[in-house]
Amino acid sequence: MNKLLVRFMTGVPLGLLALWAMIYSHISFAVMFAIITMLTVNELCNLVHEYKKTNFSTLLAVLGGGYLFLALYATSHLGVESCVALYAPYILLLVYTFIRQLYRTEGSSLDNYAYFVLTQVYAALPFALLNILSTAGEVDGTYNFVPVLSVFIFIWSNDTGAFFVGCSIGRHKMWERVSPKKTWEGTIGGILIAMLAGYIISLYSPLLNAWQWMGMAVVIAATGTYGDLIESCMKREMGIKDSGTIIPGHGGLLDRFDSTIVAVPSALIYLSLIGVL
Question: Which tens digits make up the pLDDT trace of 102-151?
C-alpha cells in the first residue's frame, strides 16, 4: 500500500507537469524533453558502465543527446535551416568519441563504440523525433501538441487496459522469458482501450478522422508494448529490476519511457504513410 501511495504521490504531479509542458508552448515542450533526453542518456550510460565496464565519456554522450534534440527543435520550430553546419558539432562529437578510444589502454574499444552509439540511437533519437511529430498537420512548422500528447495518451491507455484486463482474465503468457506478467489477453485489452481513446480524440481533433486515430492507437499500443519488452529484455540481461531511482515508486526514466522509445518513430512512419507528415 505504501508503494502504491508513493507511486501516486510522485506520478500524478509529474504527469500533470508533463501535460502542462506539452500543451503550454513549444518552449516548455522543448525544455522538458531536452532535460528528459539528457537524463535518460545519463541513466543508460550509468547502466552500461556498470554492466560492461565501458569507459566512454558520459558527459559527451549526455551533451550529444541534448544537442541532437535541440538541433531538431531548431529546424522544426525556430525556422533554422537543416544543413550540415547545424549538425557538424554533433558529427564531430561522434568522430571525437571514436578517435578517443585509440588512446585508451583499458576496456574494450568495441564495447565503447557500440554502447556510445546505443545511448544516442536508443535514448536520445526518439525524444528528438518528437520535434518532428509536433509539426504534424502544420505546413509552416507551427507547434501542434496534439500528435505528441496523443502518443502518450495511447501509451497510458494501453498500459492501463493491459494491466486491468491482464489481471482479470489474463491466462496466456505473451513472452514469459522476458516479461512473465504480460499476457495476450492483457495486450489485446490494452489495444482496445487505446482504440477507444483514439475515437474520443477524434471527436475533438480534426487532424485525423476517427479510423485514422484508431489506427494510430493500434500502432502506438503494439509498438509501445514491444518497447516495454525490449527494455525488460535489457534489464533481465543486466540483472536489474529498475533502470534507476530518479522517480520514487516508478524507477528510472527508461522504465517510464520504454514504450515511447519505439512508439515515437512508429508514429512518424504511420503519419507519413497516411500523408499527414
Answer: 887 777 888 899 999 999 999 999 999 999 999 987 777 789 999 999 99
Is-above-0.85 flag for pTM? yes
Cell of 204: 475533438
Q: Where are the alpha helices (DSSP H) in the chain?
A: 2-24, 26-52, 58-77, 84-100, 109-118, 125-133, 145-169, 184-202, 210-238, 253-273
Question: How many angstroms separate the CA atoms of 257 and 127, rounded?
Answer: 10
Q: Which three cell numbers stand for residue 245?
A: 531511482
Query: Phi and psi for 204 in degrees, rounded to 5?
Result: -115, -20
- Contact between 72 and 132 under an 8 Å Cβ cutoff? The reply is yes
Yes or no: say if 172 and 197 are a contact pair by the CB < 8 Å rule.
Answer: no
- Residue 107 zone, left/alpha/beta (φ > 0; ψ -120 to 50; rest): left
